[in-house]
Write a structure and sequence with these properties.
With about 400 residues, the protein is α/β, with parallel strands linked by helices. It contains 13 helices and twelve strands. Strands 3-2-1-4-5-6-7-8 form an eight-stranded mixed β-sheet, sandwiched between helices. Strands 10-9-11-12 form a four-stranded parallel β-sheet, sandwiched between helices. Helix 11 packs across helix 12. The chain is globular.
Length: about 400
């Protein structure tokens, strides 16, 4: 196998890195999956996908059989790879500010093993300016750093990777050309940008979605206050009036990217991103407060069993990171209510099977609008809190 067809993915057992590893292994690359999550690594080695990802199982088994996947939990193993792709998380702190020092300090560890033959590809969401800062600091060791942000929808990465345009930027012509040569193997369209353009595109893409969801949720809050149907208002707004077609449905807007990247932009612009802050207040606070209020408005609510139906952060995934359902469960438990939950994709030792859940719950809150829920014949003797309009009355 040629050195040019070898790559390491740091964070390769995570939601961004794992499907990317499979995409390249499927194109005959030797892929070294590096991750500190030994549990996920062990699952992947056995041919078990560590989380729900459409189409992953078949490619994983094929890649293991053809011996295209390798596994490590140390950075030293990058020495044998031409490409080093970084897919590690970039979290924010309790003040909604990015932990840039954690990301920056990671490169001190990484560059102990980097040489001039490596092409470094950063795929993580990053605070604008940090890539140029990293490049300047380690320029003498390697100037082939590119930023190629991912923009996939979680659980559909293997579907979207071939069809979504890949933005590529870099600190040198070689970094860009190497990255183009690599990504053109798995995607049809490449777009070249500056690093700053790519950083802003990545963050604002998520902020744009987060703000759009907040616009719908704001209308939902207004409708609830006036005791009118959000769905009816939205439908009437859109019929024959194309300028309102882009208004999404109301719902829980959460997960590990939308809020985080919106707040990274706000921090970058030193708080001068009022639209992002307003979206956060609507999606994170006001909607949750409304759900809690609806529970408290139910007669004898303290004696009721409250059921959360769908605890993943969105439909058709098993990922509960930053899930509003989880936050609601915690708030309800703080006021000493009995809470149970179910989910079509996520399970732990406390998860209820759907029939038992429906039987035991007095009040049902629809959390994630999984498609299977739309086919359920819901009991009529329950109270429902359904922002998603899943339960048909």
């Amino acid at each position: 196998m040629s050195f040019n067809r070898t790559l390491s993915i740091i964070g390769g057992a995570g939601h961004v890195g794992f499907p990317l590893a499979l995409a390249f292994a499927n194109k005959n690359y030797n892929v070294n999956i590096i991750d500190l999550n030994q549990k996920n690594l062990n699952k992947i080695k056995k041919g078990i996908t560590p989380f729900y990802e459409l189409g992953a199982e078949k490619i994983l088994k094929k890649s293991l059989k053809s011996k295209k996947l390798f596994f490590s939990n140390t950075l030293e193993s990058i020495k044998l790879s031409k490409y080093v792709i970084i897919c590690i998380g970039t979290p924010i702190n309790s003040k909604m500010q990015p932990k840039t020092k954690v990301f920056y300090n990671f490169f001190y560890k990484l560059f102990k093993y980097i040489n001039k033959n490596h092409t470094i590809i950063i795929r993580s969401s990053v605070f604008p300016g940090i890539i140029e800062k990293i490049a300047k600091k380690f320029k003498s060791q390697n100037n082939n750093i590119s930023y190629c942000p991912e923009r996939i929808v979680q659980s559909k990465a293997l579907i979207e990777l071939p069809i979504l345009p890949q933005i590529i930027s870099g600190t040198s012509d070689k970094a860009i050309s190497d990255s183009v040569n690599l990504f053109k193997k798995i995607t049809k369209k490449i777009m070249i940008s500056t690093i700053k353009e790519a950083e802003i595109i990545k963050l604002y893409s998520n902020a744009n979605r987060y703000i759009n969801f907040a616009i719908a949720n704001q209308l939902y809050l207004l409708c609830e206050k006036q005791n009118v149907s959000f769905e009816r208002v939205r439908n009437l707004m859109q019929i024959g009036y194309e300028r309102n077609i882009n208004l999404p449905s109301a719902g829980f807007s959460a997960g590990p990217c939308l809020l985080k990247d919106t707040m990274q932009l706000r921090s970058f612009y030193r708080g001068n991103f009022e639209l992002g802050l307003a979206a956060m207040k609507i999606n994170e606070r006001n909607i949750v407060d409304l759900i809690i209020k609806k529970v408290k408005d139910i007669k004898n609510y303290k004696t009721k069993t409250i059921g959360l139906m769908g605890v993943a952060f969105k439909a058709e995934t098993d990922d509960t990171r930053d899930s509003l359902s989880i936050k609601i469960i915690k708030k309800l438990m703080r006021i000493k209510l009995k809470v149970i939950y179910t989910d079509e994709y996520y399970s732990d030792r406390k998860t209820y099977e759907i029939k038992t859940f429906l039987n035991k719950s007095d009040v049902i809150i629809i959390g994630a609008p999984h498609k299977k829920y739309k086919k359920i014949k819901f009991p009529k003797d329950k109270k429902y809190i359904d922002i998603w309009n899943i339960v048909k009355k």
